[in-house]
């Protein structure tokens, strides 16, 4: 069983990261999600485990926690000894439960557990990521106990139901103001990722998980983010 991360190494990995895969198993359609995941690992730097939510009842909340726990454990098993951080979306309880098994932290949004509370639960070592949607929120994140920021949606995306995006220019402004590594997110694909080369980081799901060749898509995306802006 993989043990807890060294916190300095963990943050260095995030600082150097280009591609965060938001692993949503349901996007893999009829293919085995874990096979799709394994095919992409050479081309991604961080995996965020995010099974789709299925409702808001108390019973559903328990089901969602169990799904997040189970999928996180399966992803950790696939990742194995690779030095690739795995985090879970929303579920601070799951992050806390699996820290000793190698889970690297949690990503929270504005309507989730506040970062300060997540930090109190998790302690100083695990990663905490925060979703932001305005440059002002990016700046304010400097007052929070977060290690990286998600910023978007940059482009229109059906995944989260956004008909319009903020645009790559605002992503560049937000990245310039960010107190920690910033990952652009939302509607990013192989037709527009080159416009984010000045940001250099992206969190994506469909462009990789829905691709006919997920490994090639991950490699192509990385190349576009590395192009000179």
How many extended strands?
Answer: 8
How far apart are the termini?
42 Å
Mean pLDDT: 92
Structural class: alpha/beta
- The overall number of domains is 1
CATH architecture designation: Alpha-Beta Barrel
Low-confidence stretches: none
Order of helices and strands: HEHEHEHEHEHEHEEHH
The order of strands across the largest sheet is: 1-2-3-4-5-6-7-8
> What is the CATH domain class?
Alpha Beta
Strand content: 5-15%
How much helical structure, as a percent, in the residues? 25-40%
Quick overview of this protein structure:
The protein is α/β, with parallel strands linked by helices and 229 residues long. The protein has helices at residues 7-16, 33-40, 58-79, 92-98, 115-122, 135-140, 168-177, 206-209, 214-225; strands at residues 19-23, 46-49, 86-89, 105-108, 127-132, 148-151, 182-185, 202-204.
Protein architecture, described:
It is built from 9 helices and 8 strands. It has helices at 7-16, 33-40, 58-79, 92-98, 115-122, 135-140, 168-177, 206-209, 214-225, and strands at residues 19-23, 46-49, 86-89, 105-108, 127-132, 148-151, 182-185, 202-204. The chain has an 8-stranded parallel beta barrel, surrounded by 6 helices. Helix 3 runs parallel beside helix 4. The radius of gyration is 16 Å and the shape is globular. The N and C termini lie far apart (42 Å).
